Amino acid sequence: MSKARTSIARTGAVHVALIAYTLVALFPVFLTIANSFKNRNAIFREPLAIPTPESFSLIGYETVLKQGDFIGYFQNSVVVTVVSIALVLLFGAMAAFALSEYRFRGNTLMGLYLALGIMIPIRLGTVAILQGMVATNLVNTLTALILVYTAQGLPLAVFILSEFMRTVSDDLKNAGRVDGLSEYAIFFRLVLPLVRPAMATVAVFTMIPIWNDLWFPLILAPAETTKTVTLGSQIFIGQFVTNWNAVLSALSLAIFPVLVLYVIFSRQLIRGITAGAVK
Amino acid sequence: MGSLQLQSIRKAYGGHEVLKGIDLEVKDGEFVIFVGPSGCGKSTLLRTIAGLEDATSGSVQIDGVEVGHVAPAKRGIAMVFQSYALYPHLTVKDNMGLGLKQAGVPKPEIEEKVGKAAGMLSLEPYLARRPAELSGGQRQRVAIGRAIVREPKLFLFDEPLSNLDAALRVNTRLEIARLHRSLKATMIYVTHDQVEAMTLADKIVVLNGGRIEQVGSPMELYNRPANLFVAGFIGSPQMNFIDGERFGDSAKTVGIRPEHIGLSRDGGQWKAKVIHVEHLGADTIVYLESDEVGPLTVRLFGEHRYAADDVVHATPVIGGMHRFDAEGRVINSGR
Questions:
Q1: ipTM
Q2: Which residues of B touch A (CB under 8 A)?
């Protein structure tokens, strides 16, 4: 920003607003992590205090690692999330490419149909989905979750990616055709690298709800071997007694994989290689 | 080798017809330019030749072979795009070699051809760079290099100079003219800039509203325009059109090029008042308003000391008049 257009007061106001928002956004995370390192009494006596030598305790983490197969839950969550994102990105991008690149009868209608899922929550179909999974013997498998999450993520992916793919220069695709690239090569080697920032956006939007979801793991895959982290943490929440140390520790641990995935994708958001391709 | 025949090419999008029956013959080694206002169908025609668009009807033949159902890469063409369309993730060398690689040409041969093309376009220092690290002129040279490497029967240029600034445009224009001479290849070039068309072409095809208005060498079009559209489109400043009735001519419209009118302060055919004068150094453009024939533009060579509100006399050069009938067709050309 140029100096001429900014004043200290305005910059200050912007910073105050942003800092306030950051504090509000980070507060729950801070609370979860801070309290996960305290003993039970300290959590209830002073929930806002940071851990001191007296109140410091790893009892929550010990419980989490001893009780239940938490490493397994993590693996399940990671497998489901990563495979679902990969499928959403692959199929979403392919559908988006077809919608934006080829002129065919019913193109607009097809685009609307594919985007319909954004407005209709997939959970409305839970009963039918469960019946389907039972019929196909997929209950209590990670495949069931992956299929549902892929379906859930596709509408938004198709919608966002087709908008972005329209911005990829026609000349570039045509140059590929003249050079003898197949339509698949044009898609994978020319178009995908150029819409990478959009792919990263879609990946982030798809990832968070999948990782945090409790509904479908509870209904479709509640078995011990297929539990996800979110579902696994629920064993510490009882109707009458809740093991807060364990719950907070489990949630703190669950934050890190998401953080890692987010960092990977957000790097892609920043990096753009489109510059110079087309004026 | 590289001749092209187009027979009654039509192209419609939905109900809207963009090309309304184009017949054209391009001989081996010719430099042909499609020129016309925007929306006249020139780019669509080029894309149809390239195979990027399918004609609704009609036939495209390259070297006598019907290519209507042949993929662009198999037609023996190479295309240079207005926006360069370089592959952003590949180096200059890989950009130029991709077409050959796809065609299964052995590596050493690709290296050799890329090296040769890079030499022709003085691109050797940049072979390892990516498009983002090049200037606009260099990028367009890479795009031209990519076309040369494929040794096509036909070069297709789609407004290749439009994105370059004025000085670079002249240089690149010279470069393309030089390439045409040294490669002796058939080139088809689309532009809306009549200066490019006049300076580069062996043959100009003037298009308007999806039809060919006239085909001819630059001087033919300048000296003997077939109709009002071509007369107005070729030449800058535009030809003066005067209602024939205003000075007792049987033609509906009479056209006189600005450079074919003489000016004098003492006497001449039409008395007129100077509205505005543009001094360009080599030329002086004088805008007149005459009671007899209406507004006139006059182009004088060299410097002249006319100023607004001067009263002058304009006289058309003998044989400089083009006469057109009510349909806009030429009656008999001035020369």
A1: 0.83
A2: 47, 50-52, 71-74, 77-79, 81-89, 98-99, 102-103, 130-134, 136, 139, 146, 150, 158, 163
